[in-house]
Amino acid sequence: MKKLQKWGGAAALYQAAAYLAAIVFFLFIANYPSITDPHEKLAFLLENQLGMYGMYTAAYVVFGLALVVLNLALYDRLKTGSPAVMQTAAALGLIWAGTLIASGMVFTMGMKTVLDLYPKDAGQALTIWLTIESVSSGLSSGNGEILGGLWTLLVSLAALRSARLPKALNYLGLAVGFVGLLSAVPPLNDLTAVFGLTQLVWFIGLGITLLQKNSNVFDS
């Protein structure tokens, strides 16, 4: 159990680092999310293929794998205090991890295929890329952070009931989860960014807590 908790803590800190790296990359290095013209998107990908491949692998594929480890560690820690809630949360966590991994793989593999085709047939490459990008976006957060928000909400609720994580961290998790669910409402889609920033802080708190030797007992 102790080793699993340590691995879970390391996974949570990686997820926070991946969030931070993605924020820095897309805000200050690569402006891909702000590009609206499809032709400009393909031109950008052609010039920045290596960086985009690395970032999507780190922020989606590896992030999803780390989420599996964290999900298992949290289930092991909280299942006795709130079994039904944690069973549901664990299932949602695995589903969310799977969609993130799939999203990253669709984007990176699709990007390679499209960029190989682009010099030969730009029109067909553009059509294929619009489909690939839509699928990748839909798998991750195209409709808001429903899976991530609900998972965070349920984990935090279970932690409050079992008193196996700090109260402040649990209340933060409830707020993060609620924001994630709200981001699924079309007029509130921009809350996805707020969800990412606040969950980054929650992941840091989780990571530090799970790595602490005396983190098993908290005031109820």
TrEMBL record:
<dbReference type="InterPro" id="IPR025495">
    <property type="entry name" value="DUF4386"/>
</dbReference>
<keyword id="KW-0472">Membrane</keyword>
<feature type="transmembrane region" description="Helical">
    <location>
        <begin position="191"/>
        <end position="211"/>
    </location>
</feature>
<feature type="transmembrane region" description="Helical">
    <location>
        <begin position="168"/>
        <end position="185"/>
    </location>
</feature>
<keyword id="KW-1133">Transmembrane helix</keyword>
<dbReference type="Pfam" id="PF14329">
    <property type="entry name" value="DUF4386"/>
</dbReference>
<feature type="transmembrane region" description="Helical">
    <location>
        <begin position="87"/>
        <end position="109"/>
    </location>
</feature>
<feature type="transmembrane region" description="Helical">
    <location>
        <begin position="53"/>
        <end position="75"/>
    </location>
</feature>
<feature type="transmembrane region" description="Helical">
    <location>
        <begin position="12"/>
        <end position="33"/>
    </location>
</feature>
<protein>
    <recommendedName>
        <fullName>DUF4386 family protein</fullName>
    </recommendedName>
</protein>
<keyword id="KW-0812">Transmembrane</keyword>
<feature type="transmembrane region" description="Helical">
    <location>
        <begin position="146"/>
        <end position="163"/>
    </location>
</feature>
